[in-house]
Amino acid sequence: MKPLKSLEVWFVTGSQHLYGPETLAQVKQNSQTIAGALDGETVVPVSIVFQGVMTTSDEIRELCRRANNAEVCIGLVFWMHTFSPAKMWIAGLSALTKPFLHLHTQFNRELPWSTIDMDFMNLNQAAHGDREFGFLTARLRLPRKVVAGYWGDPVIVSEVAAWSRAAAGWHEAQHLKVARFGDNMREVAVTDGDKVSAEARFGFSVNGYGVGDLTARMATFSDGEVDGLVKEYRDTYRIAQGHDKADSMRTAARIELGLQAFLEEGGFGAFTDTFQDLHGLDQLPGIAVQRLMQRGYGFGGEGDWKTAALVRIMKVMAEGMAGGTSFMEDYTYDLGGTATVLGSHMLEVCPTIAADTPSLEVHPLGIGGKADPVRLVFTAPSGPAVVASLVDMGNRFRLIVNEIDVIQPEEPLPMLPVARAVWVPRPNLKVAASAWIYSGGAHHTGFSQALTVEHLEDFAEIAGVELIRIDGETRIAELRRELRWNDASYSMGALRQI
After folding, report:
1. pLDDT at residue 498, as a whole number
2. Which residues of 382-402 are buried (b: 16+ CB within 10 A; e: fewer)?
3. What's the pTM value of the predicted model, to 2 decimals?
4. Exposed e or buried b per residue across 153-175, where buried means at least 16 C-beta atoms within 10 angstroms of its C-beta
5. Beta partners for 361?
6. How far apart are CA 498 and CA 494, in angstroms?
7. If pLDDT is split at 50, 70 and 90, which confidence band does 492 have?
8. Burial class of residue 90, CB neighbours in 10 A (0-12, 13-18, 19+)
9. How far does Cα 249 stand from its chain's mean position?
10. Percentage of the chain lying above the pLDDT 90 cut
């Protein structure tokens, strides 16, 4: 993946000519200082670029047009250093297609009580300049994030950083292409959905390809290239005793080479497959999918294109952070003592969440009717994480996020031949599972030990989609009321559009 620092968030300040050139010069200098400080913060993954002080409607409209057309610009930060009459922002903001954050701050942390005068007051009046701007953005019903506080405080920097990662995820969604090898797993509801509505809402496209397209690309690789990748497997992973099966590894390596070439040549950032459509493949792709996810690709099993796109977006958002991100599935429960979830999938869990060097193993799959596939087996490390599900509710998309705490299995798992994570959902399994089911959450998720709910909330706000948060404060009665209110709100919105 490209480093996020190659992307830009534009820092824009609002003012007016009423204060005179000296004040505007100071506004510009202070704004450059704040933008430079944010750009220098290591937790801010993108470049913060100062774009000037806006004082007229024409300037603002031209700025927003430039932002729309600048591929490198993924969003804007607006700050009203002084009072900036908000009517002059209407044309520009109405035309703006990039997300924005409203930073409500002031240059000085503390007031100079003994020397404060009207010059100081006129210069440092974001306290009501930002409220004027805030009214307009609320009046226009514009999606945005508001961050209030002193610009140098770590918590404020952290909130700006989280939003910038969400903006990077949105930027990725606008360009993302998802390849589906085969169709959806037959008769499954939640992994299906409206791909046209998804492209209209998020920007990513989803198109199907025959498995024959993949096998044709696999056939172009020489035996030497295949053997070279097998050697990489041997050099990179521990091979479990009795699992050094050269023929199986060669088959897996050829699948990986073909998949990577197909995705790279087609400009795809995510893909799906299904064990019900493997014609021409000797194995269900296992290690190939795992290693491609490790390189940043999104993936969804059984044709789950929504989760494939979500995993890719989450990986982009998490670029450079500690902790991995993976395709995941709530597989089975331990209901004794503190109830826990054993998360896994048949084969496809990303090694970015491995606590130790994965073990390369070859086992029967028991589904799909193909040869024993190669896979990487490991356990995720302990720590906080999130699982997220993107579902199609018919008249809208819903993003459901549950905060979880990953723990270590109570006992070794010598007979379980798949990668896994064990976690306790917040507030507990009883409430979290009920809330998830009431919300219509899928069994497939994007799992991340890097991202937090804040990142996904910011993404949902930018995307204009409903977000349901399940955390330590969740109460079922309150959540069910929220779901009913949301249904009513979205239904009324649909009626207004008729």
Report:
1. 37
2. eeebbbbbbbbeeebbbbbbb
3. 0.96
4. eeebbbbbbbbbbbbbbbbbbee
5. 375
6. 7
7. confident
8. middle
9. 32
10. 92
